[in-house]
Amino acid sequence: MSKTILITGAASGFGKIAAFELAKKGHKVIATTQIYPQMSDLIREAKEQGIDVVVDKLDVTNTRDIDYIHKKYDIDILISNAGIMEGGPIAEQPMELIRSMFEVNVFGGLQLAQGFIKKFIDQKKSGKIVFTTSMGGLWTVPYVAAYCASKHAMESIAEGLKTELAAFNIKIATCNPGVFGTGFNDRGVDSIFRWYNPTINFTPPSVFEDTAESLANQLDPQSMADCIVDVALDENSNFRNVHPKETEDFVKQLQVDAWTAKS
Fold first, then answer.
1. What Rg, from alpha-carbon coordinates, does the chain have?
2. Which residue range(s) make up the domain with 95?
3. CATH number of domain containing 137
4. How sure is the predictor about 157, in pLDDT bands with cuts at 50, 70 and 90?
5. Given 45, 67, 86, 190, which residue has the most CB atoms within 10 angstroms?
6. pTM value?
7. H-helix or E-strand spanning residue 30
8. How many Å apart are CA 93 and CA 261, to the nearest integer?
9. Which residues contact 178 (CB under 8 A, 6 or more apart)?
């Protein structure tokens, strides 16, 4: 049965791949981008590939955009995928960068979800919301701790929604990517050097070089996008979906180890 699915952050990465895959399966997809130039690029790319998607502008930090989208579309599934990463040691990271991540990754995602939840309940519809969080929502990666904090917040929000909305038959799930080569992680590392100054900051620059090296063998994002698609369409999906399995096992072990970690 065809569903109407809105996905945020569809200009690139998992969002774009998942939007196109869902459209190929015959679903009505509203693929949203933060700014108009991304919207134009996505329209052109979909047309070139013969993929039928509706493309619209949605900056999740812009209340007017959110209100417009809520009024314009009736949907069955929301895939809340938009996110940003600003890297750097949290002891020195400028507060405005941390706030900007929370505005997009937490407050924007929640405000968008709230409006569609209200519509689901008003329409007596059993909708579903899938949040793209991160493996960083379940453990803290050094030098992107603030980003991980925003994803931890979304994990908690999603879990709260799952419990609180169960009586309304609204399903909630999270998808937690490992390290995939969408360019997102690389730009997160790049972002450090827009403010970091070795003559002022006390964190040695060598640690960032090590972080960059750890991104050398990132995974193909197609499999993560497929995971998001499967979770969105599965009426009985798990709440938490860490991918790949190796990352799930790694995170589980870290959570066990946390109980005996020293200060």
1. 18
2. 4-255
3. 3.40.50.720
4. very high
5. 86
6. 0.97
7. strand 28-33
8. 25
9. 135, 219, 224, 242, 243, 244, 246, 247
